[in-house]
Every structure is written in structure tokens, then in C-alpha cells.
Queue: 2 jobs
Job 1
Amino acid sequence: MTPSVRFTLLIGVGVVLLWSVVVWLSPQLQVTAGLRELVRFGHLAALVLGFGAALTVEWFGLLWLLGRRPLSAVTQVAQGAHLPIWLGLAGLTASGMLLSPAQPTVAGTIKLGAVLLVALNGVYAARLQQQLAGAGATPSRPLLVRAAMAGGVSQLGWWSAVVIGFLAARA
Ligand code: HEM
């Protein structure tokens, strides 16, 4: 196992541990009705930051597929978008913990699964991105397929969390 694979696995284990703490702590944290509105605003602001940045990367990927941008533009945008994506996800998690009901729901649990998927896929995507950046103008087809799949999994996770959150807020 190379040091970089070991590092990625270590970060992945850290993400699962953090996620377990979130699952355990969320039902125990409750806020007053007034504060709840403020936290809800924070949840949506973090959504704009994180999901907006993730969508920008996907958009550049699409432009590259259409031959409108070089691959180097996609990897550059992806590198720059890392910080806002992770900050957004952290903000969503911190605010989401305060919004969570005392009794966990099935939909809420599925949503937490989608959030774990987004986070673990993000750790994997960061590694793929390094490989793509090092592959020059003609990366191998398997590497491109893995990058496209990571993009698809990211969208699946984000959209699932958005739809479940939207429905939960109206229940
Ligand atoms: C990828 C991460 C996430 C996304 C995209 C997301 C998205 C959303 C959206 C769009 C809403 C609807 C807000 C509204 O219409 O007012 C929402 C609400 C909610 N989210 Fe999230 N969320 C994420 C992470 C989390 C996490 C990690 C938790 C829990 C730890 C959480 C708990 C909640 C709860 C409980 C609500 C309902 C709030 C209410 O009743 O007003 N979310 N989320």
C-alpha cells in the first residue's frame, strides 16, 4: 500500500468516526424556536456555499465533455473548489445537528447516509483529482471513468440530501 493510499484511507476512517459522533449527538441537541430560524438560515447558507461549489466543478466537467474547456481547467477549478465544498459540508453538518429532531426519523437517517456518501466520495475524488492533475492532457480511460463515476455519486448524494431536507422542513 502506497503512503498516499494509506493517507486517503486514514482520512476516510476519520470521516466515518466524525459521522458516527454526528449521528449519536444530533438527537441530543435541541434549540429554542427563535434560534432554530437562525440555524435554518445558516443551514441554507452552507448549502449555497457547498453545493454551489460542487455544482461549479460538475459544470466545468460538462464543458470539458462538450470540448469547450481543456481538462486542466476542470482540475484547476476542482482544486480551488475543495475548500468551499468542505466548509459548506461542515456548516451543513453543524447546523443540521441543531435542527435534528429528538426522535430520529427514517428519512433523516437516509439523509445522514447520503451525507456520509458525499463526504467519503469527496475524499476519494480528492485523490482522483491528484491523479488527473498528474496525468497530463491524455489521462487513461479507466481514470476518466472513475472520475465521471465520482461526479455522478456526488450529485446523487447532494440531491438526495437536498430533497429529503426540503421534505423534512415541510413535514
Ligand atoms: C449534504 C448535506 C446536506 C444538505 C444538502 C442538506 C439540505 C437541506 C435542505 C435543502 C433543507 C430544507 C431547508 C428548508 O427548506 O428550510 C434541510 C433541512 C434540514 N436538514 Fe439538512 N442538509 C444537509 C445536511 C444535514 C445534516 C448532516 C443534518 C443532521 C445532522 C441535517 C438536518 C436537517 C434537518 C433536521 C432539516 C429540517 C429542518 C426543519 O425542520 O426546518 N441536514 N437540509
Note: The two ends are 48 Å apart (CA to CA).
Job 2
Amino acid sequence: MNTKNAQSMLNSDLAHVWHPLAQHSTFQEKPPMLVVSAQGSRVTDSNGREYIDTMAGLWCVNAGYGQQSIVDAACEQMKKLVYYPHTAANEPASALSAEVSRVLGNGLDRIYFTNSGSESNEAAFKIARQYGRQAHPTENRFKIIARHRAYHGTTMGALSATGQSERRWKFEPLVPGFLHAAPAYCYRCVFGQKYPGCNLECVKQIEEMILYEGPETVAAVIVEPIVGGGGVLVPVDEYLPELRAITKRYGVLLISDEVICGFGRTGKMFGFQTFGIKPDIVSMAKGISSAYLPLGATATTGEIFSKFLGRVEDRVQLTQVNTYGGHPVSCAAALANIKIIEGLVDRAGSFGNALLEELKKLEKYPKVGEVRGKGMIYGIELVSDKKTKEPVSNAIMAQVAAKAMERGVMIGKTSMMTYHLNNVIWMSPPLVLTEEEAKKIVSVLHEVLKEL
Ligand SMILES: Cc1ncc(COP(=O)(O)O)c(C=O)c1O
């Protein structure tokens, strides 16, 4: 793009666009990057500079940029049937529901389509609450237990589940009935315990909450198998199986928010598969279409779905609609995307975990408190003092990201989570990341973190 065009685009942007999360006053000094193209794991800006995108956009371009088969599938579908509401059936959505059921397995074979992760979680909460009323008519199961640091979305229900105070407080009061437990976060265990001698207090706390609230008032527990935007918090292997057992014991549904963990990110198709559990409801978005087009989905089991069956006059059907749910073009793109992801998922495990071992070597630097991850999702927690674990300032985080960017590597950093803990670098690169690109990421991080 020539300089004049780029400047004119930026002028329009600065005059009219309201960017997410950004403080616009900073754009006078440093305007937003104008991204013009992307291929594989690399994006190019309007100055022709290329960067390795370790964020896969926003944890979403799992198949990598520029996959022709996805583009072709979407184009062909656009010519044939661009849209029809999902009150009727359409070919791509029908085929995709079968594909998503197949890759989910575990009897999760009923799929409701949405357009985003937030909407998938909203649908999950509605399914859980309505199921609670219809499966247990003498009870009042409406509460949803989530965890601090988790991110579940931006709409009012999904934000109510989100456990990140800075994202919430300007909009409070939020939706009643959402409660928060401690995250599975050994590095900063709120119980002051050390694994494995901790008796999994973090998961026991959820059982205590269910008992204190009264199980007959609790509809569901929602978890990201690995908390993503909240700092890449990887639970110990026993955590999710134990949580599954507890929720089962009290008739509480378990919702797995796979918006980040789904579609290959953790080295299996879904995060719940990586940890060997079977949830009752799964919410998805991002990697389902690798962001080629907006799409989300909420899956559940036949057993749960059966509680929504009856005569029309019983009014037990799910009272939920999304104009663009089951959009034929998005679904066609997702079908082509899943084919690609299936070919990448094993590599995401082996190559991804090998990259994690390399990244772990960064722990030798004084400001690197912990490096963690699984498959192709990574968090690097920065502290000013390894003993006290005092988090580094937002200014240092900005400096680290800027220095990596100068060297051609874009990294993510946690932001607006809580006032005191925005100190984790995160990466979730496209699953097509090459060995050479991985080496460059590692060497740039060594250079930048050594200097701190
Ligand atoms: C785990 C998780 N759930 C839900 C969402 C919300 O997705 P969306 O931004 O598509 O609404 C996100 C977004 O980052 C997420 O990371």
C-alpha cells in the first residue's frame, strides 16, 4: 500500500473508528498498526514490514492465514446460498453439525450455532438454566459458578461469568446468579498451598460453594480448560477430572468454554479431551472457523437435549435465536477449516510441547517468574522479584511487547484483568507455525527478557 493511501486510511480510522479496549488519546503519538495482508503465521503492515503473529490474531487463526481451501469453500457457498435463517435447514450447517459432533465425541451431538464466543456462552447459560427448570421442576437451579481470572465474553451474561474485575466494574451491577471461585493457579495459590501436597483445595472450594449455596440452586460450573486471556493458567492433571466428579455428585452441569482451547490449541481437538473429561455443554468459536468468518457453537448431549422435547403447547423448546446462527457461508468455511485443523492437531501437541520446553529456558532470567503452557498456548509471567512474585508494571509489559515487535515478533500481554496482575505475556500462534519461526520467537524472547 502506498504511503498516501495508508495515511488516508489512518485518517479515516482516527476520525471515525472506536477501537476495542484502546485509549484513543495515545493514537496521536502512536496510531494503530494498519494491517494489510497475512500469510501463514505472518502479517504485513502498510509499511511492508512483516511480523510473526504469535497471537494468531486474537487466539483464533488456528489454521493460519491465507488458506485457499477455506476461501474457496466460502466463495462457492456465497454463490449458491448466501443466507437463510436457521429456522430452516441448510447444507453447510447440517454437514458442520455432524462434523463438530464427530470431533467432539462423548455423546456431545446436539449443536446450536451462534456467531461468537460470547454468544456461545450465553446460549450455554440459557440451556443450563432452562434444563435446570425442566429436568428438576421442584428445584431452582439458576446459579452459575465461574472462576476468577477466567474470560467468558463481553455480553452481559458472559461478562457476569468473567472473573476479571477490571473488565466488569464500569458496567456493574451485572446479571444476578453468577459466583466466582479461585482459579487453578499453582504459581499464586490463594490457599498458600504447594502441589501435590495441597489436596486440590481450589477444586474443593467449588464443592464447598455448591454445598453452601445449596446444590438445588446451582445450574452449572463453567471453566476454560486452560484459562487463556486471564494469564494462561494450566490446571494440574487431576483438577478437571476431580471437578467433573464433584459436579456430577450434585447434579450440576459442567460447561467447557473451548473458545480458545478448542480446535487443536492444546494438542487435542478440544481442551476437555486433553484433560480426559466429558463435559455436559461445550461452547466454541474462534478456531471453529479460524476466524475466516465469524462463527460460534454450543454443543450438548442427547440426554440434555431430550429435556427440551415435548408437545408444542408444553413450551419446553429452547427460547433462543440468532439471526446469523448457522450462517451457510461461515459454516462452509468452518467445514474446510476443520479438515485443515485435523491435519495439524497432532503436531500442535508434539511441536507445541517441544517449543514449550525451549521457552521454559527463559525462567533463568531474573524477571521471568514462570513459563507455562500446553500444546500451542503459552504464558510467561513476569515479576520484579522472584521471591515475592511482585508483578512487573504495565510500563515494563508494554516495553517488552514493543521490543519484541521491533524485532519482528508480535506477542500478547494480559490487560485490564485486575489492577494488580497484568503481567503475563501470552502466545497462541497459528498451528502452522514453522520451526524457523519458532526459533526466531525463542531467540527474540531471550534477547528481550535478558535485557530486563
Ligand atoms: C475463553 C473465551 N470465551 C469466550 C470469549 C468471547 O468470545 P468473543 O470475543 O468471540 O465473543 C473469549 C474471547 O476471547 C474467550 O477467550
Note: DSSP finds 14 helices and 16 strands in the chain.
